[in-house]
Amino acid sequence: MSHQINADGTDFDTLLDRIEQGEVDLFLHVVRRHELSLRGYLAGQLYDMADVDDLAQDVFVTAFRGLSSFRRGEDFGAWLRGIARHRLLTHFRSRQRRARAEEQFQEEFARIAATEIDAVAGRQSASQIERLLHCISQLPDKLRRVVHAGLEGAKPTLLAEELGTTVPAIYQLHYRANQLLRDCLTKEVRS
Amino acid sequence: MNPDLNSFLQAWTGGCDVSAEERQRLLERLKSDAAFRVECAEEVQLLGLVKTVQTPTPRWLDLHDALSLNTELNEPVPGDLARRVAEQIGHKQAAHQQPVRRWLARRPLTAAAAGLMIGLLGASLVFAYVAPSLGKATTLLQESFESGPSPLVAGVPQEVGRWSGDFTEVVSEQEGVKPETGKKMLRFLRADYEGKVKPEGSYISEVYQLIDLRPYQREFADGGAVVQLSAAFNAFAFPVEEAFGCSVSLHAMDAEMALSGVTQMSDMFLTDCLAMARNNRMKVDRHPATWQRLSAELRLPPGAEYLLIRIGLEHSNKTQRRVNFDGHYLDDVRLTLARRAALP
Questions:
Q1: Residue pLDDT, tens place only, B149-169
Q2: ipTM of the complex
């Protein structure tokens, strides 16, 4: 459990109380604080950003309407992820019949590795996520190109053709890029 | 990288054909091998994050409705809200900053009188303070096509501050469509331009403008700033069997890519630029009396020197695709640069 404190030392729970008391526009502050981490968590299970963004919105709406059920002092990010997990299951069920092979695989993986996924997501701080873009810009050109293109659909195949290499090699390059990004984030945290 | 992890990522992203048997074998290993589960979870979570930070925050209209707010989520948070947030959570430094002067962004003539407006090839370059807790926001472009030269019909521009793209024309009120602001607006005419290498099959009409970011590099040197682009679209009545989609995108690039002509020769800049964001999730409605606004946001990478903005309109249905557009309009294009403070 991580107790959330604002930069000036005041309690995040105070903000939630004010929202519950009717100052609903303050919820935008909550959205901005948790948007990247929530969308990142969902993107780590769906990868399709249109679905990710639709679900993230659902999660925030549900969270806003159920704010009274959030126990003050607990980890708000973990609470959001709990709502997100439930929404993900509903999403997986709704597309079951028409799911493509990779979507079925994503669903199976999300079910089998739910604990591990949540543990990994829980370790990622919002400030680290904010710094990720800076770390991407520090990557060598070739790796940055692979990261920018992404691994969705036919992109690895197209990129492999363009770079004169194989699809597995593109995945290998992205894996290498991920290692460098982790190193960069670790160094940034230390500094 | 172990071969199973490589195979797992291919199966998970759908980037390559992985046989059903191979997928099943991987799932079996995942069930029995805890270390492999952790390894895979770490990889896909980072893949998700990398993708997330490179895409814009969407317009969450349902959330907006749920909160019953007039504030657009993709717009900078208005100063009074920011000040109240700051006050309520005790952020005294932010609370005591200057009052918000957002009005400058919407009143370029007033700003000019105050000596703050700089003409830039027909566009207005003004400065405004928005959301003190988020820092200063700068309006890089506010365009309503009232003055300045007509857009070039030359595809992607290499010249800063000049609209260029496919065939368009600046027009006044037409067919019941009134400009969103001022007396002029831009009409999309065709999905090609003079000298386009492969005009066949074009069905997306696009206009671009190149923005020089170098004067603002200090603002985003630490990766802590975003640019927000929004544009208003409208059309006069079109057949019920037709549909039209709008899109806006932002492409951050270095000088070599922006000025060397490579952006004209190939659309690889769409993916090869330093960072990009796109929003194409809006269809044109059939109400000429109202304008629809589409926006996108991009977090600027520290190495960016130029920003290419792209605004497009397309024939959505394959059966209707053609090079001409009958009555589709663009107006009130806004581009702002704002600090997005690091989250605590």
A1: 889 988 888 888 999 999 999
A2: 0.88
